[in-house]
Each structure stands twice: as C-alpha cells, then as structure tokens.
Write a structure and sequence with these properties.
The structure holds 5 protein chains of 5 kinds. Chain A has 4 helices and 4 strands. By secondary structure, chain A is an alpha/beta fold. Chain A has one domain: Rossmann fold (3-Layer(aba) Sandwich). Chain A has a 4-stranded parallel beta sheet with strand order 2-1-3-4, with helices on both faces. In chain A, helix 1 crosses helix 4. Chain C is of the alpha/beta class. Chain C has 5 domains: 124 residues, 3-Layer(aba) Sandwich (Rossmann fold); 176 residues, FAD/NAD(P)-binding domain (3-Layer(bba) Sandwich), CATH 3.50.50.60; 58 residues, no CATH class; 165 residues, FAD/NAD(P)-binding domain (3-Layer(bba) Sandwich), CATH 3.50.50.60; 60 residues, Alpha-Beta Plaits, CATH 3.30.70.20. Chain C has 16 helices and 34 strands. The chains are: A alpha/beta, B alpha/beta, C alpha/beta, D alpha/beta, E alpha/beta.
C-alpha cells in the first residue's frame, strides 16, 4: 500500500517497536539501481528502514551463493536489483544475472527456504518512484513472513522425516 | 495424388457455378483430388466478422474442423472472401485469449492446417512449367489481363503468398498458356466490391477504370480469381458502360476457365457460355497466323 | 588495523533524522576502529582537513566516511585521503543520507540503520587492499575506419594535432556519400567544392596513411595498443606507378561495367576512375567485367598504359598497423526501394532514388548535369518527389526518421527549377523535418520562390501509363485522391546502416542496435564514445544525421582521441579482476563469459596455462568473479571477502 | 548374455590397446562391487568386466587431479574408457567445457540396464556373508554361506536408474552389446522424486533437508566423485581465502556446502548419481542437483551432456528471453 | 566374584532407559530410518532404534574426538578511549560427564589403545581427550558377526578381545549376558536385571571361548614397517595400488584410529572461538603450505602417507603398536572399493603383482 503523495509521512507506521529487528540486504548495481535509490532519496520518497544496501559493480557480479549464504545464516530478506536488460553499463552483465537469479529463485523452495524472501528486479537510475514501490512492497512482504528462522537445527530436535525415496 | 479439402463457398453454388465446375476440371487434370467438405456451412463473410469476430471464426472454424477430421492438412477455397474467414479462424485458434472459447464452439483445435486460394494451389502445386507442358491449345496471339483484386494476396501477414503490392503468380500462369500478358498497373486495385448493390456509381468508377486500362493495354479479356470481382467487371459491364458512356466489351473469365481452355477442354464444359460478356474472341485459334508472321510470342 | 570513522551531519540533511553522535560513539566500539567523530560538513575544505589531520595523528590505515552517496563524493574523499598519504582505496563510504536520513523520519530506526551501514563499511574496509593504477604506454597513432566527410574531418583534425593517422576506406576513393552529391543544403554549396580541398589535404598530409579499396581484416589488443590487420583488396593496378591519366579508361572495350559511383545510372568501363576529383586518382579494374580476367583475350589497358601499371596477377595483400585508438566513421547506405512493390519494385527506370537524381544533377554525372530521364533521355516536365520511402515505416523495419530527406528533396526541387525553368515539381510529404539553422527558411524558399507544389499525403501506387508515370496518392489537406502524371519520380529513400556494419562491430567488439547503427556509450552525454575503451564513433554510422552533424562528430571524436593521447601513458582503472594463479584450474569459464575479451591464456611451463587479466581492457563488471568456481579470479575492491564481510554483519 | 558382452569388450580392448595410452574400466573386487582399473598391458585385459555391478563413473579420472595438472602432450595417445549411458553424458559435458578434446578419448560405450545399489541388496541379504553374486535375465542371484537368494533386479536398482532416459551411450567409438530401450522418455518419471518432495509443504521440505544434511560429515566424497568437480583441490568449501565457510559442522555450513556444489553444477550436471552412491551417510544429494536439472529443462529447455557443441546455459545468455 | 546380569531381548529398552538415568549412555543406533542405513554411536534418548546387530558406520572416535570442539572462546573488550587496549576473557570448556558406551565392539575399543598412546600417554597430553577418556566406561559386545572385510585378529585384536573394556556383553539367542570386568563398573549393574541362570552362564562362557579362538582376517602385518620403507620410493607400486582413489575424506573420517585434526580461529568482530575440527591427510589442503608448495601434491603420496602412518610410523614410534584396529570400515565405505589389506599385504612381496 503506497500512498499517492510520496512526500507525506512514512506509509507504514514503522517505529522501532514493531520492527522485530527485520534486516534485508540489498545488492544494488552501482550504475542503475544504486543511482535509483539515490534518486529516491533525493526526491525524499519515504521508505521503510529495513533495507541495508551492498553496492556491487553490476548484477553480473552477483553470485547466487551470496544470496544462499544470506538466507541460510538468517538475513530476513534479500533484494537484488540492477539495470534493465539492454541498459547494462557492461552491456551483458544483467543478461547473465537474469538466468542465474531465475534458476536460483526456482531452486530455493526445494531446499525448504521460502522463496518469497528473495526478489530480483530491474530499476534504472531515474526510477526513484519505482524504487520506493519495490522497497516498500518487499519490506511489507518480509514483515508478513517475519524473522528468518534460518536452517539451524534447534538442539534436541531429532527430526525423523521419512524420505519417500524408493 | 494430392488430397486437398475443397471448401466451395456459397457463390460457387450460385452465381459462380462455372468457377466451381472449371476448378474441379482443372484440378482433376493436374491430379489434385478435391475432397469437398461434407455438410460445409457458410463462412459468414463480411456481415459475420463485422458483427462478432468469434462468430465468424467459429463459422469458418467448423469447416476447418470437418476438413481436419477428413484427414486433410490443406484446405483450398477459390473465393478470397471464404479464404479470409478460414485464415481468421486459424488466427483466433492460435490467440491464447480466444483459443478456449473457439475450441469450445468448434469442438476441436485447427492447429497445423494450411489454407490456400485456388491461385496459390495452382501456382505452388502445379507451377507455370508443368502448366506449359500440359497446354494442348496454346492461347498464343491473345492478350490477357491478370487481375488479382484486393484480397488474394492481402493482408500480407495472413496471406503469406506472393508480393502483396506487386503479385506476379497469375501473370506467370497466364504466360505459361502462351498468351501475352502486359504489366497491368491496376492488378490489385479495388473493383468496388459489394458497393455494386448500394453505390454502383463506385463500381462504375473503380471497375470502369480497370476496364479502361485493360482496353488501353490491348487486353482481350480480364482473367480474375474472385467471384465478386468477376461479378462487378462482367455482369455490371453494361451498367459501367452506361455510367461512363463507354463501350467496353471485355470478357472476364475465371483463371480456371482460361487454364481449362489452354488444356484443350471444351468451352461448354468450362461454363464459358455462362459469362455475360461472350468470351468467343478467346476461342479463335491464332496459333497459325502467329507462326505465319514468325514474330516471337 | 587502525580505522577512523567520520560521521557527517551534512547540516541537517543527515543530523535532522539521524543521531550522528550516537553513530560515532557506537562506531568507536567496533573492532579495529580507533577514532570516530562526527562533523558538520565533512566534504567541505575544513572537513577534509579534519580527516587528513586524524590520519596523521592517529596513524590511520583506513577511513570510513558516513555521509552522502559515494556516487557523489567518493572521488572527493579519495583525493583527500590520498593527499594524507593513504592509498585512495583504503577508504569506504556509508550512504546515510540518500539511503537513510532522507527517506524516513523515525530517528531511532534511522540511527540503528546508520550504525549498521557504518559497521558494514568498516567490515568491508578490513578486507580492502591498497590498489595502484598501472601505466600503459600509448601508441599515439589513430586508425580512422571510413573515408566519408566525418572520417576525413576526424583524420585532418588529428593529423593537424601532429598525430600519425591511418585511414581505411572500402571504396577506391574517399569522400563517401558526400562525394556523390552535387550540391549541399541549406546553402547549395557545390559539394565537391567544399569537400575537394579536404580530400586533397588527406592525400597530401605526410602523417596520414591512406588505404583506399581496403577493408579491416581483424582487430586485436586494447586501448593504447590495438593491432589492426588491413586487407588491401587487389585493384589489378600498381597504384605507385599509376598517374591517373585515364588513357586506359577510354580504350577499355568492356563498356557495360556497373557504375557504382553513379548509382548504376550510367555505364562505366571495366577499368575506371569514378570521378574527376577522385582521391586517390588511381584506376581500378572491376574483376566482374574485365574480359582478360574472365578468360577472354584482351589486355588493351595493359598495352596502352604509359607507365605499365596494370598487373592482372595482383592479389589481395594483408597489412598490419599498430594504433592506439580507433575512430569508426563508416557512414550509411540507402534503403533499397525495390521492397515497395507499389512503387514499381525497381522495375520502372524513371522511378529513381534521391542519390541517383543527385548524380543526374551533378556535372560529373551520367548526363553531364543536364536533367534527363534515365529511360529515354528526354527532359522531364513534371517531376514528383516522394518523401519517407523506407523511413518512418515499421512494415519494412525502418520505423525511424532519416532526418535528411526533407532537406535534400527541397534542395533537389530548387535545383530542378534552376535547370528546367518550365518544369513543375511536386513533393508528397507526411511532415517536413527541417530543424537546422536556416533549414526551414530553405524549404519555405523552395515553396514560395521556386513554386514547388507540396502535397501533404502518402503515395499509394505508381504505374506507367503510356510513356509517363502516374503517381496516385492522397491530399489529406484537401481530403481528395490525387493523381499526378509525371515524367520522373524521385523516391527520397531513407538512411540505413552501411553494408557489413554488423561484422565490423563484432571485430571491434562494440555493440549495435537492431538496425545496425553502432551504440554510443550514452545518447546525450557521451555520443561519440562506445562502451569499448579506445573506440570512438563519428557520423551516420552512429545514426542518421546530416553533413554538419557528421563533421561536428568527426571533430568531437578527434578531440576525444587527442585528449587520450595528451599523456604518454594511460592510467588503467585499478578496480579490475586479478587471477590468483595458484587456484586457477584453467577451465576457461572466465574467458568465455568476459563481455570485453579482457582475459586471455597465459602459458606456463609444461603446457600448463592459467587465465590472465588485461588490466587496461577489463572494465570491472565482475561477471568472471561470479562465474569462477574456485573463485581464483577476484574483482579488486569488490572481492568475495569484501562482499561477504558486509553480508556477515547482517547475519544473525 | 553378460558373458558374450564381456568377451566382446576384451576383444575390442585387445585390438585397441596398442594405440591407446591406457584403458580405464572396471574390475570385480567383491561379489557385489567393482573397482576402477587402469590397464596398460595386454595380460590384465581379462580382469575387465561390465554389467550391473559396475557403478563408478570413470569420466572423472580423465580430468581430475593429478590429470588436471598434467595436460596431455599434443602427440599423446588417446585414453580408452568404458562408459555407461549416464557416464557418456559426463564425457560430453567435459568436451563441452573443453576439459578434454574428443580425440583424447577412445570411448567404449556399454548400453546399461541399470546398476545395483548395494545398500538395497543389504535390505535382503547380510552383505558380509555373500560368497558370489550374478545377474541372470533381470534376476539377482546371491549365494551366501547358507542359502541362495533370488531378488528381482528391479528391486535393487540405484535410484537414478529408475527414471533413466539415456541408457545407451550418447557418444561412443565402439558399442559393446545391444542397445537398451530407455525406461522413460518424459520428465515425469525421471524427476519423480523431485516432484514428490516439491509437493510437500515448505516446513516439511526444510525439516527433511535439515535431518538429512545433519548427518553429513563433510568428507567431500560427493564432490570428489563428481566428474565435473575438477577444482576439488582448490574448492572454496575448504579454502580460507576467500572465506565462504568456517570449519563448523553445523547444519548451516552443510546447507551452504551443498548449495555451493549444486549451484556450481547448475546446467552442467548430467545426473550420473555418483554423489549419492558414494555418500557414506546415504544422503540423497543427487536429488538437489536433479531439481536444478529440472529447472534448466523447464526454464531453458536444456539438458546437459547431450550436445558437445552446446554451451552450458549459465555461461551464456539470450537477450530476447524476457519471459523466464 | 564377577557380577553378571542377563537382559532379555524384549526388556533391553527399559534397561537402557534405566541405565541412561544413572549415567550418560551412548549406544550404536540407526542414524536414518532405514534398517540397512548408516549407524553410529548416539547418546541414548527414548525412541532411537539401537543397532547392535552390526558394526557401526561411524566409529567411536566421534565420542572422544568430536568432529568439532571449541577449545576456548575469547572476547575483546575495548576501553572507551578507543585505543586498542584489549583484555581477553577465556572460558574453559564444560566438565566431561561420566559416560557409558554400551554395545561397542572389540575393534572399536581396540582403537582406543592407539588413541590413548597418542593423546594420553604421549609426550603431549591432550587435556580435552584425557578428561573424556577417564570419564568413559565401555561395555563391549563380543563380536559374533564378522564379515569378509574384518581383520581384527591380524592387528592384535580379536572378536573377544576385552582390552580396555569394563564390561563384557555376550549376545545369546534370547538376550544379552552382561558381566562386569572391573570393579568400578560393578555398581552400574546393581538392580538392573537379575543374574543369569547356570545354563545361560555356561553358554556365554562357551561362546566367549569360541570367539577368542576365532581368527578373523589373515593379513600378515609382521614387520610391515620396514617393508613399507622399501616400497616408499616405488611410485609405480602406489600407482598400481591406488590410482582409482578419489582422495576424499571418507576412509579417514570413518576410521576409528585416524585422529588428525585442524585448529582454526573463527572470529566475529570482537568475539571468537578456537575450534578443533577433524582433518584428513587425504585432503590437498592438509599439507598445503603458505608458500603454495605441497609436499604431498597428489593422491598417491597422500594414500602412501595414510598407509605409512598406520603401518610404519606408529609401529616404529610406539614399539610395534599398529595404527589400525582391523575394523574394515575404510574398505566398506570407500567409494571405489580400495582394500587396504591388499595394499599392506603386497608391501612385502618384492614383485608387486595385483
């Protein structure tokens, strides 16, 4: 739910109290999405404060294992954003990324990790409003999902899930 | 023996009966087995698709479905109007949004079917070389004007046959009969189509222009492949003469009739007598005087 | 490691919604942080001096500034720390303004986020390593591909700048399309009068080496050190000896050779010098039409050549040139109007293209400057011009406007009235595009002074009626169908990318759009550069444009090259990939994915090979680092450890 | 029938051995199991065997250390290698990624009716006491000290063989024995186990992998048995530079290890099942790679190790594909 | 008078339940819900299924040398002025609790002899190991089911070898006869189950006598140390023996007597821990030096080292003690079925035929 006037107060009442310490890591490509986040800032488009940005040169630099490490070790949400296909500063970086991210997103649920905790998208340097929309919606989705339980086996929890394998 | 589903269409049962008869004879002569679609229905033509595209698609689609059940992959329709509806049906069946309602109405999908006009069938399956070898009564010495009309090669994306703006297939086939075929500029101009009933002044001007250019180029006959064009140019030739105070006397035979003639079939069997403007001029055998003058064909 | 953290208030931009004091206090609690303070305006002069003082006094080995976006002031702070003797890459920024203070009013949440970002920056800094840009020697020689007006302009500017220039032109003459023009708009200058001297300069300047009738065979290397192989196509004439006297042309028995220069209107001889002012003024044999070369006995030209320059055994020759930069000025080609069946599909001789009409108008043209109909040579009385043939028409894959046709139609219509005062000219147009200086006034003159009849509407069909051509179109302003009986129809065929543009782009490793025009680095801010370092663009090869813009781009590209060659060496960007040879298993995946071909094999003893990064070609995208399974290749300043360090700070 | 095939193999190897540097094949070392063998002289050719007990995928020996650090000399003689259907796909994958050239290998293709999983045999028979074992037309006959057991081969086939689509070698110079009809052609059967796990709710899938991977002892047998894991000696799972994993043996570390192995094989794994066969803790790790293979097939219509010219999908891109 | 009890098969669970209340009880159990799946020593909790019928996949060493053990934790405190003066707070590992391993086999316990020689009686005493070792009692099962891979007799052990054990368990048709061999184990048996009747006692004694006579495996390990030294340089011997090796860590991780470990500091900002974790000499990184040189670059040297360590270095250093307990786990779990008995057996022959 984003309100129409971006300049009004923060859309969701996100005081520290109901933050539950949600942490979202954002891998933003330096040329487009990091610029888009800057534009959103310059235009004062209000956003929730859960996102922590890691600047990478290009989504082509994005090894899906960074996302795996984050989600396995308890980061609540991972957002990857880069230049629109065909706009990449390095011409083809996001083409490589698109296949890797799509394959990884389809792979996560198989391992029991909620794929809704990972989102990849394309936002250019001028799309400040679009960036606000992406961050707000993704933060709300992660809040709905709550803190990431990670894969740690609670001590003593000997789980005997019978494998259906023949 | 090439098996082709034959979708006659309403006009070939009525006004254009000679087109139907000559088509069957020519196809048979070239070993093409026409399997008339049993219990075929009217394609809805312009009224249907202007009222409801799904209705028009389903009407034509039903015929395609029956043809598919007969095991034919190719459906031929001599009338461009019916051909347009058939292709419209195929397109609707492939459209993801409309596929479901279409299949519900028709009962099955019609993927993989090929829909062609008589001209396309003759040009692609037979071809000018084979035609030339089969000619018994060459029409050398005659000048024939090829007239395609507006629908035969258009719209380009759907028709996918010959060059929509500058078609040559009819020209090649007629040249194969030995006739002289000038480059006719109005080969794809409109003949006035259905305005013949409501605004026959349009037909007077548009078809008149075609007849005028044909006469100017020394044409002895305008060969057509569409019953509606034939109707405007042939049946309404006297109205046109009245409208333009001209004196055109140009027979307008169908492509199948001309080819039949060249193959040596009798004019009676080809239904040449059914034409309003008498095509007798075409029957003159000018092969001798052509040799006598010794000039190239 | 001794790290200093500087939290900026940025006036109230940050301090307004972030407790910068608390951030600094928290930062002091992190491992390795020995100094933390907050400052009013860190990017200001005193702010930077504060940092430099702290580096000296505290012996800092790394600095974190928590302020605005690094895209804004990273260079500023890097220079500041460098002045204080610290390597500029031992520095990180935390963006607590655009990403924190400006996008939320919750002071507590903002402060905790700022603290997180500072902790992440400090974590990354621990893995930073000093980086040094290496100096690559520059071979101050320029290669200009394409000898049109843009290429000539670029070559002359650089040659005047004292640089060695190598120009390669595919045709046997330079001057490109402009050489074929009679006059140019809007001043109706005679094209060869303004182009001729420049062409002569190209020929006469010692530091310009001209390879006409030659093509690029292959290009390797990188900015500052390109190795170019040029294929000198065989002309069957020894150009050192040939004086251009033209004797061979007169005597050559094969008179029906294709006359490419006159756009196929006239007929040329098998051995030919295309036009009198041709540079280089050398003869060339068109192998397709020469009798001798097609097995028949002839050799007339060889016999009468006063300097014995003819050599039927001459073969193509590959020449290698080493250059430091490349300017691509390969120009454009015209749309082939035969695609339009309704305009006759190329069957009617009197329906010609704009460039063919330009040849007819030209004194060195097939009819010596007299306007004649190509079919029967008669003087035409009614002439129809049709604009947008193969432009602004998506159905033939040319949705774009070619920009120059409206102007050259007006010019040709004016010239027609000059040549044939009684003639009538008609122009079918959709819109008139005349944006340049004195452009619209020029078109206005054509309409008012020269009585050219402008009809707003498309032409539906052209067909022959008797000797004349009927142009059937619409006049949308009067709302009627119009028919014009004309003697001559000129189609203003649109501009498209030159033949073979795609293959050349692959050799240059630059990208091109779906129409074959080369992709500039940024349409507005860097129009003459490409994404490949050291390769620049000029003229219509980058997109349809008129002569003034092409010349301007020629000079622009030349200035780019001159600024590149102003220094003896090029500083390479140190944020490039680096291979740890111990972990490299030579699987070649990095070489396969590198978009810039910046990685090559390095042969070691015993047939062992490892990957090696060319520092000056690598652009720092990091695709290789993401692809390498053993992570042997690491993108400096964005290594796995650095990114993982930032991620680990956020893990539970 | 096995007998004639074995003789044919021996004959073919005998003919080819002079031109070969060496011949890699299997030999019987235990009634129910084989061990790879590297034959250089004619007299040990007789030890070569084939059949349902030959489970190892020999393709790895061509490229893994020490072969990795000793690239073949240009004039080196080719290496002979026995390959089943799934092993042959590994060879094609290695050729695709230019670890070996086609001329480097003389391939003896052996159509495969499925390999025996000794763990499943252990459910019927006490392995230690097995004296001899043989397969006669799809029935496994085992003699131990007391009785003779007859078990239908279908009962003891390895999991990967149940949905096998490529029993016949996709590439070979010499074919030993008659071709076998594939057990399934569609994706439904070959990814049956993947679909079964995918159908479970998310929590149950997590619990399944937590309990399975909790048993993992990080012995890296699955990595070292994988023919495509050529960088096993420099694997980021063990190195401290860059530091992806710590030495902890908690479930997160094992999750990340198996994520790394799976993602490095995405679009490359040919489903030869070695990783699962060698796991001392009997963890179905091939299942993880099968899921990624299914994604590659659905998303990009690509199966690894079938066309030597094809480029693994994650090493290339297609600007047009906006729909994935 | 030796204290003996007889536990009927069906009452085994309740006895174990009772025993686990008195002492930390570890028994061999299924690690996976598959009867023929992997087994290992697990702390007894109701609901796990014991697996006494066969040798465990994972060895006993997991109990005494856990795969991951925090040696110490450290935490830096920074003093407020920001200079890096730091203090380190160490915390000692928790005390080891008295433990009973019920159901290990003689080869498992035999392996402890080697481990004790290295960790407890060697020049450097490992406090962590010694503490656990002293607090652990072993109720060892006389081994009834040996298979083709076992060779405990050839390395000084035997199916009924009770060295190092405190209780002996004999498997009868209908239950288990447990006899305390050492005094401090006797209180354990108190009021667990009633004493066995005479017939069972005699039957058990007969079984024990039979087992101790049985010769398991025929590997000749006499003076294998010098034989190994002769073979050391012959690379083609090792190539012919173990070219098929994958150099993975299975054989070392399932081997009861392989005790190599690696110590790493895992730090996070200001805190961290010193971690001891299993390592394997079969891994490349085991001997990779900082310079990049690796004295054992290929799997052949590494396997040679493994054989040498067990059958040459330890015997020469510890008066003929062998570093192998003949359990055969490395043979059973090896992905390519390398048989160490073949490699050791052929050490002596001068011609190295297969």
């Amino acid at each position: 739910m984003t309100d129409s006037n971006p300049r009004s107060s923060a859309p969701a009442e996100d005081t520290a109290a109901n933050r539950q310490g949600i942490k979202i890591v954002g891998f933003l490509c330096n040329w487009c999405s990091y610029g888009g986040a800057d534009t959103a800032g310059v235009c004062r488009f209000k956003q929730p404060t859960d996102l922590r940005v890691v600047r990478i040169p290009c989504t082509g630099r994005m090894d899906p294992l960074f996302i795996a490490k984050s989600l396995i070790y308890g980061v609540d949400g991972v957002l990857v954003s880069g230049c629109h296909p065909r706009d990449c500063h390095y011409a083809v970086g996001n083409f490589y990324a698109r296949r890797r991210m799509e394959a990884f997103k389809a792979f996560l649920p198989f391992m029991g990790i909620d794929t809704r905790r990972f989102k990849y998208t394309w936002v250019s340097a001028s799309e400040g409003q679009q960036w606000q929309k992406v961050v707000t919606e993704f933060s709300e989705q992660i809040h709905m999902l709550g803190p990431n339980p990670g894969v740690e086996l609670r001590s003593g929890e000997i789980l005997k899930v019978s494998s259906g394998l023949k | 023996m090439k098996r082709v589903a034959y979708y006659k269409g309403c006009s070939l049962e009525g006004l254009a009966a000679e087109y139907d008869r000559s088509t069957r004879l020519v196809c048979e002569a070239f070993g093409i087995e026409l399997v008339e679609i049993p219990d075929w229905n009217c394609c809805g033509s312009t009224p249907a698709h202007s009222y409801d595209p799904l209705l028009s698609a389903a009407l034509a689609g039903r015929n395609l479905a029956i043809a598919a059940d007969q095991g034919c992959e190719m459906v031929m329709s001599p009338c461009p109007g019916c051909l347009k509806s058939l292709k419209g049906a195929q397109e609707t069946c492939e459209d993801p949004k409309l596929r479901k309602p279409f299949v519900d109405l028709v009962g099955r999908d019609v993927d993989g079917m090929k829909t062609v006009s008589l001209l396309q069938l003759l040009y692609e399956e037979v071809g000018p070389e084979a035609l030339q070898k089969a000619v018994r009564r060459p029409l050398t010495g005659h000048t024939l004007i090829p007239y395609y009309g507006c629908l035969l090669t258009r719209p380009a994306q759907k028709a996918k046959f010959d060059d929509p703006e500058n078609p040559v297939s009819l020209d090649r086939l007629l040249e194969a009969t030995g006739a002289a075929v000038p480059d006719f500029p109005y080969k794809t101009e409109c003949c006035g189509a259905t305005y013949g009933v409501t605004r026959n002044d349009f037909v007077g001007r548009l078809s008149g222009r075609i007849l005028d250019m044909a006469e100017r180029l020394g044409g002895e006959a305008i060969v057509v492949a569409c019953p509606l064009c034939q109707q405007n140019l042939d049946m309404r030739q006297d109205q046109i003469n009245k409208y333009r105070s001209s004196a055109f006397h140009l027979p307008v035979p169908y492509i199948s009739q001309v080819l039949g003639l060249a193959l040596g079939m009798s004019p009676k069997m080809l239904g040449l007598d059914k034409l309003c403007v008498s095509p007798d001029i075409l029957l003159e055998d000018r092969t001798q005087d052509r040799e006598a003058q010794g000039s190239a064909g | 490691m001794r790290i200093g953290v500087f939290v900026c208030n940025c006036g109230t931009n940050i301090a307004g919604t972030v407790d910068t004091k608390k951030v600094a206090a928290e930062a002091l609690g992190f491992a390795d942080v020995v100094y933390a303070t907050n400052y009013m305006y860190t990017c200001s002069e005193p702010g930077q001096q504060e940092i430099q003082r702290a580096i000296a006094e505290q012996g800092l080995q790394g600095v974190v500034v928590a302020a605005c976006s690094p895209r804004m002031h990273e260079p500023t702070f890097r220079r500041a720390v460098e002045k204080a003797g610290l390597n500029r890459y031992m520095f990180e920024m935390a963006n607590i303004r655009e990403h924190v203070s400006w996008i939320g009013n919750d002071r507590e949440a903002n402060t905790s986020k700022a603290i997180d970002l500072v902790r992440m920056a400090v974590a990354k800094l621990r893995f930073n390593a000093p980086l040094f840009s290496s100096k690559m020697p520059v071979n101050k020689r320029l290669l200009v591909i394409g000898g049109g007006v843009a290429g000539i302009q670029a070559a002359l500017d650089c040659a005047d700048g004292g640089m060695d220039v190598v120009m390669v032109e595919r045709q046997q003459y330079i001057g490109g399309k402009m050489a074929k023009l009679d006059k140019t708009f809007p001043t109706i200058d005679c094209s060869s009068c303004i182009l001729g001297p420049k062409m002569v300069d190209v020929a006469q300047k010692e530091n310009i080496t001209l390879y006409a009738a030659s093509e690029i065979e292959s290009i390797s290397g990188y900015i500052g050190n390109f190795t170019v192989e040029i294929r000198k196509k065989t002309t069957f004439v020894n150009w050192e000896a040939c004086t251009g006297c033209g004797a061979c042309m007169e005597k050559c028995p094969s008179k029906k050779a294709a006359d490419y220069f006159n756009e196929g209107l006239g007929a040329a001889r098998a051995i030919n010098i295309p036009f009198p002012q041709a540079i280089p003024k050398k003869a060339m044999i068109d192998a397709a039409y020469c009798r001798q070369l097609n097995g028949k006995k002839c050799g007339v030209c060889a016999k009468i050549c006063p300097v014995k320059a003819i050599d039927f055994e001459m073969k193509d020759e590959i020449v290698t040139e080493k250059v430091g930069a490349i300017i691509v000025a390969t120009g454009y080609d015209l749309f082939d109007h035969a695609v339009y069946g309704e305009y006759g599909g190329g069957r009617y001789p009197d329906v010609i293209s704009g460039l063919q009409y330009e040849r007819i108008l030209s004194a060195s043209g097939p009819f010596g400057g007299h306007i004649r109909r190509p079919s029967d040579g008669k003087e035409p009385k009614e002439i129809v011009f049709i604009s947008c043939v193969g432009s602004r028409d998506a159905s033939v894959g040319r949705p774009y406007c070619s920009g120059i046709c409206c102007m050259y139609i007006a010019k040709q219509a004016i010239l027609t009235r000059d040549h044939l005062p009684e003639s009538n000219s008609y122009v079918f147009y959709m819109d008139i595009r005349s944006p340049g200086k004195n452009y619209d006034e020029f078109v206005r003159r054509a309409q008012e002074e020269y009585g050219v009849q402008y009809i707003r509407g498309r032409v539906g069909k052209i067909y022959r009626r008797g000797e004349r051509m009927v142009v059937q179109g619409a006049d949308t302003l009067l709302g009627v169908q119009v028919e014009v009986e004309a003697d001559l129809v000129v189609l203003a065929t649109g501009v498209e990318s030159s033949l073979g543009a795609g293959e050349l782009a692959e050799k240059l490793r630059i990208s091109y759009d779906q129409y074959g025009f080369y992709m500039e680095s940024h349409p507005k801010l860097r129009p003459v550069e490409t994404n490949t370092a050291g390769v620049y663009l000029a003229g219509a090869c980058q997109g349809p444009k008129d002569i003034p813009s092409s010349v301007a781009q020629g000079s622009a590209a030349a200035s780019k090259v001159q600024s590149l060659f102003a220094h003896d060496t090029i500083e390479t960007n140190p944020q490039v990939a680096l291979v740890n040879e111990r972990n490299c298993i030579a699987c070649g995946k990095c070489i396969q994915v590198c978009p810039f071909g910046a990685i090559q094999w390095k042969e070691l003893r015993g047939g062992i090979k490892k990957a090696e990064v060319l520092a000056s070609v690598c652009q720092g995208c990091g695709v290789c680092n993401a692809t390498c399974p053993p992570k042997a290749i690491q993108l400096q300043h964005a290594t796995d450890n650095q990114i993982l360090a930032e991620v680990n700070e956020l893990c539970a | 029938m096995l007998e004639t095939d074995r003789n044919q193999l021996h004959k073919c190897v005998e003919e080819a051995l002079p031109e070969l540097d060496m011949m890699i094949g299997w030999t019987r070392c235990d009634p129910l199991q084989t061990t790879p063998v590297f034959i250089r002289d004619a007299k040990s050719i007789s030890s070569l065997t084939l059949g349902p007990f030959c489970s190892q995928n020999l393709a790895g020996y061509l490229v893994k250390p020490p072969a990795l650090d000793a690239p073949p000399k240009p004039d080196a003689k080719p290496i002979g290698i026995c390959v089943k259907g799934c092993d042959s796909r590994s060879l094609v994958a290695l050729i695709q990624e230019k670890f070996i050239t086609r001329q480097r290998v003389r391939i003896f293709g052996i159509p495969c009716g499925g390999t025996v999983d000794w763990r499943k045999v252990a459910r019927h028979v006490e392995l230690g006491s097995v004296k001899s074992a043989d397969v006669q037309d799809r029935v496994l006959v085992i003699e131990d000290s007391t009785t003779t057991h007859r078990i239908a081969l279908e009962e003891v086939l390895s999991r990967k063989c149940l949905g096998c689509r490529h029993p016949n070698p996709v590439i070979s110079d010499v074919l030993i024995g008659a071709e076998v009809s594939p057990r399934s052609t569609g994706m439904e059967t070959s990814y049956r186990d993947v679909d079964e796990l995918d159908a479970k709710p998310l929590e149950e899938r997590l619990a399944f992998w937590q309990s399975e991977l909790d048993r993992c002892i990080r012995c890296y047998a699955c990595r070292n048995a994988c023919p495509l894991c050529v960088c096993q000696d420099r694997c980021i799972v063990e190195t401290r530079e860059p530091r992806w994993l710590t030495q902890h043996v908690g479930v997160p570390e094992k999750f990340l290890f198996h994520f790394i192995h799976a993602m490095h094989l995405a679009g490359r794994c040919t489903g030869c099942g070695e990783c699962e066969r060698v796991c001392p803790m009997d963890i179905p790790v091939t299942l993880i790679k099968e899921k990624l293979n299914k994604i590659m097939e659905e998303m990009l219509g690509y199966s690894a190790g079938l066309d030597p010219e094809a480029v693994p999908p994650l090493l290339t891109f297609n600007p047009g594909e906006t729909e994935i | 008078m030796a204290v003996k009890i007889f536990i009927a098969a069906d009452r085994l669970d309740s006895v174990l339940e009772k025993l686990s209340t008195k002492i930390d009880l570890w028994i061999p159990a299924l690690l996976k819900d598959d009867k023929s799946g992997p087994t290992g020593f697990v702390q007894y909790t109701p609901g796990i299924t014991p697996a006494f019928d066969r040798q465990t996949t994972m060895p006993l060493k997991k109990l005494l040398l856990p795969q991951e053990e925090t040696l110490l934790r450290f935490k830096y405190q920074k003093d407020p002025e920001g200079s890096l003066k730091t203090t380190i707070a160490l915390d000692d590992p928790k005390e080891a609790r008295p433990t009973l391993v019920f159901g290990a086999r003689s080869c498992d316990v035999r392996a402890l002899v080697t481990l004790d020689r290295v960790f407890a009686n060697g020049p450097y005493v490992d406090p962590y190991y010694v503490q656990r070792r002293k607090n652990t009692l072993f109720a060892t099962l006389v081994c009834g089911q040996t298979d083709s891979k076992c060779f405990c007799s050839s390395v000084g052990g035997g199916p009924a070898d009770m060295e190092g054990s405190h209780l002996r368990i004999v498997r009868l048709e209908d239950g288990y006869l447990v006899e305390a061999l050492s005094k401090d184990a006797q209180p354990l048996l108190a009021d667990l189950a009633e004493a066995p009747d005479k017939s069972r006692d005699q039957l058990a004694a007969k079984l024990v006598k039979e087992a101790s006579k049985r010769q398991v495996g025929d590997l000749d390990t006499k003076d294998c140390a010098p034989a190994f030294r002769n073979r050391f340089q012959q690379n083609d011997y090792w190539a012919s023996m173990v070219s098929q090796c994958l150099s993975c860590g299975v054989c070392t991780y399932v081997c009861p007597t392989c005790y190599c470990f690696s110590i790493t500091d895992e730090t996070r900002n200001l805190e961290g821990e010193r971690l001891r974790s299993w390592d394997s000499c079969m891994f490349y990184h085991y001997t990779l030096e900082a310079s990049g040189h690796n004295p054992r670059p290929t799997k052949l040297e590494r396997y040679r080292n493994r054989v040498g360590h067990k059958f040459s270095y330890i015997p020469e250093r510890y008066e003929g003690l062998l570093g192998c307990c003949g359990c055969g786990r490395c043979i059973r779990s090896c992905p390519v079925n390398i048989d160490i008995r073949q490699v050791v057996g052929n050490l002596k022959e001068n011609s190295n035929e297969q």
